[in-house]
Amino acid sequence: MTDPIRIPDDLKPVDGRFGSGPSKVRPEGLEALSRVAKTFMGTSHRQKTVKDEVARLRRGIAEFFSMPDGYEVVLSNGGTSAFWETATFGLIREKAQFAEFGEFGAKFAKAVRDAPFLAEPTVHRAPGGSAAYLTAEPGVDAYASVHNETSTGVAVPVKRVAGADPGALLLTDATSGGGSLDVDLTETDVYYLAPQKAFGSDGGLWIALMSPAAIERAHRIKESGRYIPQFLDLVTAVEQSRLEQTYNTPALATVFLAAEQVDWMNAQGGLGWASKRSAESAAAIYGWADRSPFASPFVTDPALRSHAVATIDFAAGIDAAALAKALRANGIVDTEPYRKLGRNQLRVALYPTVDPADVEALTRCIDYLVERL
Ligand SMILES: *Cc1c(COP(=O)(O)O)cnc(C)c1O
């Protein structure tokens, strides 16, 4: 074994965390958490100290997304994967339609396909690196798409399905897109995410911005008598959220770090600022890849290239896995591609927590390594 190549310090990013999730947590957030280590951590989630943090998070999220009147911020435990099951039990009346163009969209579609009380869903599929779209279909009462497909780096606009049955809901998985990409929430009924991506916190929580129609749907389904596991009961989640708490014990650090991050992003200028910062990082990495003789954006249609997560292919002579390994040896971590995509590729998170200057530094580090590997 030869020694790993040492990248000169002046080429390196200030912060070497480029993971798509868990993603970079701001040191300032962790310092704020350590300041409340004895007054907040290890205290009851049914008491004011913790409820105030849940309230701060819910308020901050509503402000950040300019939440329309009547929408509510609902949260509970288990991350986005738990929300998929919650939506399967509590938001889909009978038949759903999915736009599936990567692993995450596919997982929600599978949950619905496996549910014995729902009809076989319609799934529009597209291969990794491109996008699939929702189309009006009689009888579909819930449409579902991701905003950003984290496994491939494809982002699509959030838009209602023209010609859909009246009352049909749109459910948008914003786990990685939410906070990095512009959105008009009047265009969707449920915009849901988990805070370990653009919201620079830790995992274990799901947060859903829900329209009045979606909340109404959850009540109607529950009243229908369908069996709903208690942990996945959306009406309970709505009621508990209104009381600034969760059904069962949340990870207190996750709640606190998410609230810190949302306050920070709101102070910088909210979603307008955040999406611009992610766009700057995107311009840096895609611009570099376009100019590079050995790197190219995996997503060929520039309009679909995500500003939240960039996927960069490498020419046949360059081993991207070796590159990721050499970067890791230099403290630059989590640039490995999504496993199942199986490409000679690096994946880089462009969430607003990541400094665009660090993304530029990363491209310099890659150039440095490619010359020497
Ligand atoms: C990370 C991710 C998920 C999974 O989130 P968990 O909180 O780990 O369940 C789902 N959807 C998308 C788009 C993601 O990026």
TrEMBL record:
Enzyme Commission number: 2.6.1.52
Q: Which keywords does UniProt give here?
A: Amino-acid biosynthesis, Aminotransferase, Cytoplasm, Pyridoxal phosphate, Pyridoxine biosynthesis, Serine biosynthesis, Transferase
Under InterPro entries, the record lists: Aminotrans_V_dom, Pser_aminoTfrase, Pser_aminoTfrase_mycobac, PyrdxlP-dep_Trfase, PyrdxlP-dep_Trfase_major, PyrdxlP-dep_Trfase_small
Reactions mediated catalytically: O-phospho-L-serine + 2-oxoglutarate = 3-phosphooxypyruvate + L-glutamate; 4-(phosphooxy)-L-threonine + 2-oxoglutarate = (R)-3-hydroxy-2-oxo-4-phosphooxybutanoate + L-glutamate
Q: Which biological pathway?
A: Amino-acid biosynthesis; L-serine biosynthesis; L-serine from 3-phospho-D-glycerate: step 2/3
Enumerate the Gene3D superfamilies for this protein. Aspartate Aminotransferase, domain 1, Type I PLP-dependent aspartate aminotransferase-like (Major domain)
Per the record, the coiled-coil ranges are none
**Needs which cofactor?**
pyridoxal 5'-phosphate
Q: Name one GO molecular function term.
A: O-phospho-L-serine:2-oxoglutarate aminotransferase activity
Give a yes or no for keyword Disulfide bond in this entry: no
> For this chain's UniProt record, which GO biological process terms are given?
glycine biosynthetic process, by transamination of glyoxylate; L-serine biosynthetic process; pyridoxine biosynthetic process
The segment annotated Disordered runs over 1-25
Report domain Aminotransferase class V positions.
Answer: 143-333
Q: Where is the composition biased (Basic and acidic residues)?
A: 1-15
Q: Its function?
A: Catalyzes the reversible conversion of 3-phosphohydroxypyruvate to phosphoserine and of 3-hydroxy-2-oxo-4-phosphonooxybutanoate to phosphohydroxythreonine.
Family, according to the entry, reads as follows:
Belongs to the class-V pyridoxal-phosphate-dependent aminotransferase family. SerC subfamily.
**Per its record, how is this protein called by name?**
phosphoserine transaminase
Origin species, per record, is Pseudosporangium ferrugineum
